[in-house]
Task: structure prediction
Amino acid sequence: MNLNRKMTLLFGGIAMGTLVMLVLISLYAFRSYSIASSTAHVRTAAEMVRVHLTEAMIQGTISKREQFLNRLLEVQGLRSARVVRSPHVTEQFGAGMNREMNPDEIEKLVLADGNPRYEIRDEGSDSVFRGTIPFAASSRGTPNCLQCHKVSEGTVLGAVTMELSLTELKEKALTTVTWIMFTMAVFAVLSIFLARKLILPVGSTAQAVERAVQRALKGDFKGRVEKRTDDEIGQIASETNNLLNFLDDGLARISQRVVQLTGRTLRQDDNQLEVAIDMVNGLADASSFKQAIEEDETKSEIFGRFGRVLTDHFGVREFSIYETSGPKQLDPFMVDGSQGSACHWCDQQILVRSDMCRAKRSGHPVDGLTQSGICYAFKQPDDAAESRRHYCVPIMQSGSVGSIIQIVVPEAEAARFHAQVPYVNVYVREMAPVLEAKRLTETLRESSLRDAMTGLNNRRFLEEYVDTLVATTRRRKTDLAILVLDIDYFKMVNDTHGHDAGDIVLKSLAAMLRSSVRASDMVIRFGGEEFLIVLQETEAANAIRVAENIRAAVGDLKVQVGGAVLQKTISIGLAMFPEDSETFWQAVKFADVALYRAKEDGRNRVVRFSPEMWEGHAGSY
Result:
């Protein structure tokens, strides 16, 4: 029920209630007036009868009282009038006329107690007012009743009963009430009409505001409120329209900017307000995600956090993250949330032929959600119970594809997830520069820990890693063999064939050293033509055997330099940790001492450190 109808019913109810109350009050007032007026008339008439009878008794014409009563009936509205004697008068003066000798019940009561009695009774369509008034003996006044009647003061001598017709008075009262009702009804109708005229703009404006608000809640701020008056109601309509214009313009600009950031296209049936809120929340979450990953230390932490976002925020349980490895290879970094898992949702050939991956080849997102079969490399496992769709997005790093995010969802959820794709792209966009920064940082750190020419780790790498290396050795209670190697007469190569030839020799030697030891062993360019090898979990005898093999291999190594073939020898000093020293760097120093002893003894040999090499020579090193 709208406001106008409520106000109409309210005013109508008030008017009807007022009219009913006024009718009831008028009827009650007319009834009270009729009773009071009739009572006064009966008293007046009774007093006239008493005076007439008294005068008739004095003048001796009491026998003509009947004629007086009959003439009294000619008074308009007076239906009957009769007089009854009390037993005291009958006893003194004898019986009167016949109708004076038979008092009814009411007259008997009046004669007995001397109190007047009145009543109203209905006789068909006529209403009759009856009043019975007693005559009491009194010595006061003229004539003195006690001079003729032998009774005491206040004795009831008789009573007069009169009946008045109230029909005419009732008709007049009804006519008056009718006119009052009619007048009030006309006034009420006019009041309701005027009230509706005043209230109608309020109700209509309220309804218009309600409709505009309902449309606004659905994201449509195009609704407007018609201005009907120039008062406060009209001002409300104007201000509401201004507010809707402001919200519509502001929301349109916000949506436009957010669409530019997310790439999401708004549909006609979209609730722009809800969509804008969702997009802003998505951007805020993505910004928080970026702040979090900027503080992460490694790519593993970043990809792990992104995986949790896919799972917790987007409800994705199946996804893979691949990283490029060389021009042709892809490595599965994370598969379905687990690092180091095998390729699961793609042809295994993409790992060695990365061009089979459409996202890697094109550098653009691959939408398999809406275009089934767009990428031939996407394959579902044979044990998959439900058909899947995929969405792959590459992460560009330094102008090329560095990583690929593959999201896999059941076919039944493809449409739902497709609406979330723009937000996923926002996360990927926020993640890309952080990954690039981490990659550059790792590259920079790697370059600082690796010798640029030979590709071997440098002394700084050993300094950073030595604590971990020593802790692992002590925990496992194993030995480390430390080999310090130096090319014999290397300066002659630079002086004779030039520094370029020396670089070639160093590179060839580095490659040979790397291939001569295990993957768990460390080969380090210690400086110039000097190298250091750390053999893990190796006893002294085995270390000497490895060193001899290296020495022999270097002697057999032939390096092509321009038109010449160079062959060099190498001297090796060996020390054991913790056998020779409880500190790692002291053991390195002992290996260096053994290297100098090898050079002093004629070069091209392996020398195992012994304590006597250090005695008397500690101050020289």
